[in-house]
Design goal:
Elements: H1 12-19, E1 27-29, H2 30-34, E2 45-48, E3 51-54, H3 59-62, H4 77-81, H5 106-122, E4 125-130
Parallel strand pairs: 1-4
Antiparallel strand pairs: 2-3, 3-4
The structure holds protoporphyrin IX containing FE.
Length: about 140
């Protein structure tokens, strides 16, 4: 993925995203997040590394029937980091959840973090994914 190689000027959206107090963002369970698919809710949300981006401004790429609809309404870290539109099994042959990137090596982490930059430049952050019901919402926000 080439976006990360470019030393782009931060966009207005990026600067806004950078200012956000993540602790105070609304938390979405996986079930709640799944509704932001343009149908159950009018917005399209895509999460990466637990931060939720509102991609509605580019709904043409994300609406049903489009290839990137697969990223909508979930944390798609695993798909993006593995450059795959389908979840791939891990080394043990099990297919992890879409948000799970715990087995990523340097290569996948770089791809994933490049996508974080791309989304952060283009789309407002609107929430945090609460993976577990008792999740404290603390996340690793390094990019
Ligand atoms: C044959 C394979 C593919 C082609 C030809 C392709 C082509 C493109 C093009 C032309 C764009 C628009 C770039 C821009 O707006 O600057 C794009 C965006 C994107 N691609 Fe792909 N892509 C391919 C595969 C993939 C795969 C495997 C993934 C992820 C697993 C992926 C994820 C994305 C995402 C997330 C965007 C950003 C959409 C947005 O918010 O604008 N693509 N792709």
């Amino acid at each position: 993925m080439a976006f990360g190689d470019k030393n782009l000027e931060p966009t207005e959206i990026y600067l806004q995203n950078d200012k956000i107090d993540i602790e105070n963002l609304p938390k979405f369970t996986i079930t709640e997040l799944s509704k932001y698919n343009g149908k159950d809710k009018p917005q399209y949300y895509v999460a990466i590394k637990r931060l939720i981006y509102d991609v509605t401004s580019n709904s043409d790429s994300y609406k049903p029937g489009k290839g990137y609809n697969v990223f909508v309404g979930k944390d798609s870290s695993r798909l993006l980091g593995t450059s795959s539109l389908k979840l791939k099994p891990n080394e043990e042959g099990k297919t992890p959840e879409s948000w799970d990137y715990s087995d990523f090596g340097d290569k996948e982490l770089k791809v994933l973090n490049d996508w974080v930059k791309f989304f952060k430049m283009r789309y407002p952050i609107v929430g945090v994914v609460a993976i577990e019901e008792d999740d404290d919402g603390k996340i690793d926000t390094k990019d």
